[in-house]
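User: Let's play a game. I give you a shape written as tokens, and you guess the letters that built it. Ready? Here's round one.
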């Protein structure tokens, strides 16, 4: 039976039992979700550094490329990417032979894309450290708190709970701060608790340069990316005032024309919420492997149920994602138009709050 370690029911013996089982010389792989964001990469690298300090051999493996604005993170250059044909060959035996498989910042195997089967069948002990809703039952241990704003925050909490706070280095803190900063929308989303600020305060005391991290992550766009953003805002944005909904879309041609790189579409959906009165924003992207959707909303409107019900997805209440496998971008928009009227009463309720 998996051992769930939840905020509501913290099973201290399980936590310490797990810690005691980490033995120097063991092999660990750390993996995270497709299109890894700053929280995914930051938590994976911080955890890798922690395991290394504990004497384990730890390797971070990702199902798709690390975006350019995250490649400066300490340890990022050694990450193995399953989309890279040469690295892919090394990945399978590493996962198969690992004593530990840590799954960070996701708790549904499908989010691993081409790595999901390898991880599912791995013989090593699987540990999920995550803050997403509705974790799937595939691992042996869960350190799972939906109240946490980021997985980086959980990594910090777990290391402290294990009595190893003094092992947290400035480099680890730099990785953790990156994920905390981005998953809280630079400390403005409703998930920004007092605890988030307490964790960050302790990271700053370690010497973490928050200003430099902010600049590296947010002010590192290529000219192509900025022009791409301008194109989307100018030509691919509609506001459906009746539904208080901003819709944006990106075609396959747009991605090619602006030489879109991994991470270039990150954050674009949030612009929709800058429209006065907007309650939610949806971005549809025509990727070569299908239509990907991003959903964002303001409190208390929940987009995760919308994403799960109509677009094979889910996520957080105010930040979710999904897919449309029933056809083209136009067909995905048609499906959206069909289901929107079902949400009119909820939108009107939220509008009055
Ligand atoms: P994004 O729009 O940045 O791709 O995703 C926002 C959030 O939605 C992610 O942090 C993740 O929690 C969730 N999410 C994205 N795609 C999926 C998906 O396909 N399935 C589920 N369950 N959650 C997703
Ligand atoms: Mn996260």
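Assistant: Ready! My guess for every position:
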């Amino acid at each position: 039976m998996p051992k769930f370690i939840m905020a509501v029911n913290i099973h201290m013996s399980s936590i310490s039992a797990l810690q005691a089982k980490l033995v120097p010389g063991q092999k660990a792989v750390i993996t995270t979700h497709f299109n890894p964001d700053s929280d995914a990469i930051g938590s994976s690298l911080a955890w890798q550094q922690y395991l290394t300090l504990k004497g384990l051999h730890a390797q971070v493996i990702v199902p798709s490329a690390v975006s350019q604005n995250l490649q400066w993170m300490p340890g990022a250059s050694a990450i193995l990417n399953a989309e890279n044909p040469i690295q892919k060959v090394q990945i399978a035996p590493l996962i198969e032979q690992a004593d530990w498989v840590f799954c960070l910042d996701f708790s549904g195997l499908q989010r691993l894309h081409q790595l999901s089967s390898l991880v599912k069948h791995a013989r090593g002990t699987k540990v999920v450290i995550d803050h997403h809703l509705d974790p799937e039952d595939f691992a042996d241990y869960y350190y799972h708190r939906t109240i946490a704003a980021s997985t980086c925050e959980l990594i910090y909490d777990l290391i402290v709970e294990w009595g190893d706070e003094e092992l947290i280095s400035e480099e680890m803190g730099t990785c953790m701060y990156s994920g905390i900063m981005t998953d809280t929308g630079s400390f403005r989303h409703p998930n920004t608790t007092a605890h988030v600020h307490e964790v960050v305060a302790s990271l700053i005391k370690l010497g973490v340069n928050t200003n430099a991290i902010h600049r590296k992550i947010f002010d590192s766009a290529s000219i192509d990316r900025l022009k791409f953003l301008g194109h989307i805002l100018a030509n691919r944005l509609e506001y459906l005032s009746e539904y208080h909904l901003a819709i944006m879309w990106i075609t396959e041609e747009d991605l090619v024309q602006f030489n879109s790189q991994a991470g270039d579409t990150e954050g674009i959906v949030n612009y929709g919420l800058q429209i006065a009165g907007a309650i939610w924003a949806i971005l549809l992207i025509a990727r070569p492997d299908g239509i990907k959707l991003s959903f964002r909303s303001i409190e208390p409107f929940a987009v995760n149920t919308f994403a799960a019900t109509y677009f094979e997805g889910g996520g957080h209440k105010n930040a979710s994602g999904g897919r449309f496998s029933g056809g083209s971008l136009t067909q995905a928009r048609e499906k959206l138009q069909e289901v929107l009227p079902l949400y009119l009463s909820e939108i009107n309720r939220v509008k009055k709050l």
